[in-house]
Amino acid sequence: MTIAVEPDLSLLEAVVAQVWTAMLSAESTPWTGTLPDDFTGPGARIRVTGDWSAEMVLATTDVGAHSLTRWLLRGDLVTREDIEDALGEVLNVVAGSLKGALSGTSRLGLPMPGTERLADISSTPPHLTVSWGGEPVLLAVRPASPERSTP
Question: Among 50, 54, 80, 124, which residue carries the largest CB count within 10 Å?
């Protein structure tokens, strides 16, 4: 059995930069603002299982979610389902790219929409916050645990 290498912050940053360029036609720039610890926003989770098992999480603000979705769909009017699909797809591409950069064999689950709390996302490394249209987008890799359920 191959033991997978765990992702670190530099790998997560490199993957996010690549996804932002290829998928969103934008540079991945660090978010420089501050968010309160009780911040919650729309997001998505996805599980990775296998030699490397983890849960990846993405969250942003309502404004960021709408902006990102409008960019991906090339439209002005978006529904809640559109937002859930767009955030899930961005997370799916990030998670798939990260998984592909690691050794071993792992599988991605389906992205699940939800509302995410900053304190939950940033509780374990690696995690980072990048900017999309002036809004924060938080991404984190957390160890998979049986007690944490996917929404």
Answer: 54
Residue 146's pLDDT band, with cuts at 50, 70 and 90, is low
Say which CATH topology domain 9-143 has: Chemotaxis protein chec (3.40.1550)
pLDDT digits (tens, 9 = 90+) for 86-110: 999 999 999 999 999 998 889 999 9
Question: Does residue 49 contact residue 106 with C-beta atoms inside 8 Å?
Answer: yes
Write the single-letter amino acid at 43: G
Whole-number Cα distances in Å, 131 to 52, 70, 80, 128, 148 = 28, 16, 21, 10, 27
Query: Which residues have C-beta within 8 Å of that of residue 102, sequence separation ≥ 6?
Result: 4, 5, 6, 7, 52
The label of the residue with tokens 């809004």 reads 135
Residues 41, 38, 96, 93: is their CA dihedral positive or negative? positive
pTM (two decimals): 0.89
